[in-house]
Amino acid sequence: MSNDGAQRAHELPGFAIRRGVPTDASVLAEFGARTFYETFAADNTPEDMSRHLASAWSPALQAAELEDPQLETLLAVGPDGALAGFAQLRAQHAPACVATRHPIELKRFYVDRPWQGRGLARALMSEVEQAARRRGARELWLGVWERNERAQAFYRKCGFEKVGTQIFVVGSDPQTDNVMLRELP
């Protein structure tokens, strides 16, 4: 993984968190597609998974997202330099159920299985909160699949509460996401 122009935002024993740069696109695309597949393939058809992975995780799309000023991508890098997790904030309109004044979306939050339960997710969420505050946000919201109980439990531990639902399409399958919200301290 390249460190070109990236500043280390947070360092803890065993990993560091830094802002993603366009040269990270291919690594991010592979990581995102792999972790999405590992998490959701058992509950989706192979055709829907293929469509979704092709539309959401190409290196070209990741490069464009890494250059988009409305998005901020934070990468958690392990001691071997490999990507261990990432989070992505997106500044845009929130759904109607997020009735707040200055929200920002936690669009993506992924931690690789070997790093789960080792403190990386909490450290990454702390960096997300700091990045959101730097962008002027007062609230953080996200969509999480209604059947992803593990993720919902983590988000509740981080202070998020369900405020509504929205549709997230995987391939051709419209699925229900719970919309969760928390105020930033």
Description:
The chain is α+β, with helices and mostly antiparallel strands and 185 residues long. The protein has one domain (11-183): Gcn5-related N-acetyltransferase (GNAT) (Aminopeptidase, 3-Layer(aba) Sandwich). The chain is 32% helix and 34% strand. The chain contains five helices and eight strands. It has an eight-stranded mixed sheet with strand order 1-2-3-4-5-6-8-7, sandwiched between helices. Helix 1 packs across helix 3. It is globular and about 35 Å long. It starts with 7 loop residues before the first strand and ends with a strand.
Structural class: alpha+beta
Task: Characterize the overall form.
Answer: globular
CATH superfamily: Gcn5-related N-acetyltransferase (GNAT)
Q: Quick one: biggest sheet?
A: 8 strands, mixed
By CATH, the topology is Aminopeptidase
Layout of strands and helices, then pairs:
Blueprint: E1 8-12, E2 15-19, H1 25-40, H2 46-56, H3 59-67, E3 71-77, E4 83-90, E5 103-111, H4 120-134, E6 139-145, H5 149-157, E7 161-170, E8 173-183
Parallel strand pairs: 5-6
Antiparallel strand pairs: 1-2, 2-3, 3-4, 4-5, 6-8, 7-8
Helix pairs in contact: 1-3
Task: Describe this protein with a few key phrases.
single chain; Aminopeptidase; alpha+beta; 34% strand; 5 helices; 185 residues; disordered N terminus; globular; eight-stranded mixed β-sheet
Condensed summary:
The chain is an alpha+beta fold. The chain has five helices and eight strands.
